[in-house]
Write a structure and sequence with these properties.
133 residues; alpha/beta; 2,3-Dihydroxybiphenyl 1,2-Dioxygenase, domain 1; 7-stranded mixed beta sheet; 3 helices; 7 strands; 23% helix; globular; binds cobalt (II) ion
Length: 133
Amino acid sequence: MIIDHIGIAVKSLENAAVKYHAGMGLKIEKPTIIKEHKVRMVMLPIGESKIELLEPTEKSSPISKFLDKRGEGVHHICFRVENIEKKIKALKKVGLEVLEEVSKSGYKGQKVVFLHPKSTNGVLIELVEEGIS
Ligand code: CO
């Protein structure tokens, strides 16, 4: 298992991309809109992992709500797991709460699920199943 990516909520993807791409020197992929989550995002690979910049596409986006409440910053940490259903079962056994059903709404249609931050020490955790990356 590795950290697949760290998601950062930003007001402007272009503005943030300049800092992480041109400034920090990270590679950058093509920005994508993920309708299910109402975000426009871009991945910046770093080693085996990635930085994910997230910009809301509308007011009702969870990222928009996060920005209103907390401002820009780290939004979630994503773990890449071998088998998402198996991992959820194991996590539920120790009292972790899943926020929603597993869906194929990840980057490039990956299977993802989010865990409730109340059950993970205040950190929003995303799980993504290995495979397409
Ligand atoms: Co993510």
